[in-house]
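> call design_seq(struct)
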């Protein structure tokens, strides 16, 4: 285990290590994967409580896939009827996790579970306060993390989404109406001033397979193809302008990516998720 000092927050309030705190507000920017997806600013906060089998859970407002949460012994549990066999609660975040522990996550598009493995456990200093941080990847050799859990803050890559479906960018956390943590400085004012950009999905474009080893096939679009592939952080990892229908993706590390196809004007006409084994 090693320690890192993390700067970037403009506030100095002490952060409550209790994650499910009614005084907390999580801000983020999400790109929804609909027929006409767009990026928009969202806020998550605890809106209500509910008793299930004599156990108290909290509802999270603006959490697209719903679900209810409870916190016990440094673990966050979730119940979500959308996920198969999840009528019983499952571990959502575990701050007791150790290196090598495995936590499955449900991929709503592919209708399957994907295993994430804990690859690092350390601590970060935020506002003169040391907080545990746990990093998970799809495999030990994966280049990029799929989840980063920070004590008192949550999953800064996925928010409270229990399902892999959306491209989520956590921006900042408020507690008692005070800014206590800023993560993504790409968005001013935590993303509240985001200019919404519509992304049109051309249904005639076919991309397959969606779970790949080396190659993907693209059909139904006028060539040449202007293609960008981005990772879960929104970083461009591959760019092609080609007449080929088969795209070599063998150089990509294991993980989840989004493939964007643009027209001659540079406008996105198709966005699809792919998983590199």
């Amino acid at each position: 285990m090693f320690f890192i000092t993390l700067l970037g927050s403009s506030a100095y309030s002490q952060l409550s290590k209790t994650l499910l705190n009614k005084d907390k507000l999580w801000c983020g920017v999400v790109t929804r994967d609909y027929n006409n997806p767009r990026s928009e600013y969202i806020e998550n906060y605890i809106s209500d409580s509910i008793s299930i089998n004599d156990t108290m859970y909290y509802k999270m407002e603006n959490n697209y896939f719903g679900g209810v949460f409870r916190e016990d012994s440094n673990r966050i549990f979730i119940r979500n009827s959308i996920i198969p066999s999840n009528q019983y609660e499952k571990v959502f975040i575990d701050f007791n996790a150790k290196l090598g522990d495995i936590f499955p996550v449900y991929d709503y598009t592919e209708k399957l579970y994907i295993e994430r493995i804990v690859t690092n456990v350390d601590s970060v200093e935020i506002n003169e306060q040391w907080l545990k941080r746990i990093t998970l990847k799809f495999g030990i050799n994966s280049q990029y993390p799929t989840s980063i859990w920070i004590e008192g803050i949550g999953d800064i890559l996925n928010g409270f989404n229990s399902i892999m479906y959306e491209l989520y960018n956590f921006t900042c956390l408020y507690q008692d109406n005070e800014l206590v943590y800023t993560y993504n400085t790409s968005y001013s004012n935590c993303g509240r001033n985001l200019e919404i950009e519509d992304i049109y999905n051309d249904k005639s474009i076919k991309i397959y397979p969606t779970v790949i080893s080396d190659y993907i096939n693209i059909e139904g679009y006028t060539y040449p193809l202007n293609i960008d592939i981005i990772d879960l952080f929104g970083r461009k990892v591959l760019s092609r302008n080609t007449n080929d229908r088969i795209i070599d993706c063998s150089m990509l590390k294991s993980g989840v990516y989004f493939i964007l196809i643009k027209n001659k004007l540079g406008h996105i006409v198709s966005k699809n998720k792919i998983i590199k084994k």
